[in-house]
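>> received
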Amino acid sequence: MDKERSAKLKSLPKVDQVLAMPMIAAYSGPAPRETVVDAVRDAIDGMRKAVLGGEDIEVSAQRAAELALAKLTRSEVRSLRRVINGTGVILHTNLGRARLSESATEVISSVAMGYSTLEYDVEEGKRGSRHDHINKLICAITGAEDAIAVNNNAAATLLVLSAICFRTEVLVSRGELVEIGGAFRIPDIMRISGATLKEIGTTNKTHLYDYERHINENTGAILKVHTSNYRITGFTEDVSCRDLVKLAHDNGLPMIYDIGSGLMVDLKGYGLDEPVVPQAIKDGADLVLFSGDKLLGGPQAGIIAGRKCFIDAMKKHPLARVMRLDKMTLAGLEETFRQYRDPAQAMKNIPVLQMITAPSDDIKYKAQRFALKLAQENPLVADFSVVKGIGRVGGGSAPMLNIDTWAVAVSPREITVDEMASKLRHWSVPVICHIQDGLVLLDMRTVTDDELSTLAKAVSDVLR
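>> returned
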């Protein structure tokens, strides 16, 4: 070992020396001593390894204190935290999908901060059921006889197949054997549930007679799956919910419709051609399954609405307890459904619906005002402009729908666009943007008005 390296090893500071440094002493007040000591030891150990590895580093109590403080600061940052979505993807799966309404978050906070009526019947003064908080509300809105909610739509599918179709064949079109994020596949769920998949028709064409030919004494149900995250176009044909209902009922079978996206109001006027839950119930589907955190605009959940006899069977199934919702999710889901008692109120108050239906001209005006604000506050470090873009619903919903949107385009002068995007992600409130044509784009459709001041500060900080 050379003399310089040996000298550096000998000069490594002691733990007590680093703990006595002012910046560490100041931090030791609010933080547990063990946490601070561990950070200091890690810093000194890191120095030792760097020196042994031949790195030319500064070895001092001051530098060790700086390294320890950096680690302590990082440890205080929560892993799950709020971000600003500047991507233009409304139901961004990686960013938590649906943004909840203000009233839903208030109700969740109220329920979380105290005891609640989760499984208590106030009227009778005895034990109640957590299902009772939302099933009547869902039925009033969808027209179903009964309803149950579990922790996501994949769980809903598994519960339905396990409770209703165990050891029977379930007919599904080959064009509807979907896979969603996380490698969730309909055939895999079938196998786990104890039901047997019976593939019908071809990938691009399935006719009513394909189902008719395969109905036998082992058939337990007909399952229609909405292809919410892809579309097969061209020479195609499928069978409507209404026609499958008639066929199923003529043969004494239940018809199950996995809609997935959970749209409650008709948005065809906005280009959103997705199945609507109340219409599926009206068409006679025995069970309709959908997500809570997609087009419904609520928290993550899987809702099953339909005939009471089937819902009762699911409530008694062992998986119902495994998949049951917690009090906070139930509170958010109840408040979200309450908004739909008045569809006009839902369109106004539920952020997902607001973002989808916001006029393009309104988004453009917001982008222009924000770009002007940024230009005034940062005149020498970047150029700002407004560009037209294409937004997406996202979250495995409406894959073919392009939504006109507008973004503020930033061309930084002193750092690269990649550096700016990285700095925005690492800001105190992470900002998620995208890069296109050498510009950092901040899409205004998914940035709310109350986030603009925070976003402006983030941009100014990283540019300077």
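>> Residues 102-349 form a domain with the Aspartate Aminotransferase; domain 2 fold (CATH 3.40.640.10).
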